[in-house]
Amino acid sequence: MKALCLTVSFMVASAAWGDGSVVLLHQHVDSFDITVFAPSNRMTVGQTDLNVMVQNADHSNVSDAHVTLRFQRMDNGKIVEVVVPATHSKATNKLLYGATITLPDEGSWKFTVEVDAGGARVSMPAQLVVGPADTSVKEKWPLIVFVPVAIILFIINRRLKRRWKPTYPQARP
Description:
Layout: H1 2-15, E1 22-29, E2 32-38, E3 43-44, E4 46-56, E5 66-75, E6 78-86, E7 97-103, E8 107-117, E9 120-131, H2 137-163
């Protein structure tokens, strides 16, 4: 019984992942603490949701800020820039500022979070490496299907072995 309770506890605890975000960047800039959350710890080409939490020095949330996310990269002598405003309406957690950003290519990007709140304007620069786009499920389906098919074949094998009774010829006296 104790083992069952322990197993159920681990299953419930592993399912409690919160909102599923990881801290991508955190920095104290002037009188603000700025934290950037992403769905995973690495950025990839394509569409990504980013959330920004802006706090005062006393760790109270700043709810009336104007937050802008800016990505810049040099590509063949040209500057590629992606600028997106982050707002409360695009965030799932309304204490955060959310934005959906689409990055066109992989490589090293200069990332800047610009915050304008309470008469103060600060920016938090960082360097992010953007990796190649994730492969789609269409390309991974053989790997995903293999395990259930192997389990089903194993179950069929065991049932057939249980039903099959070998007949041996009678020994002659």
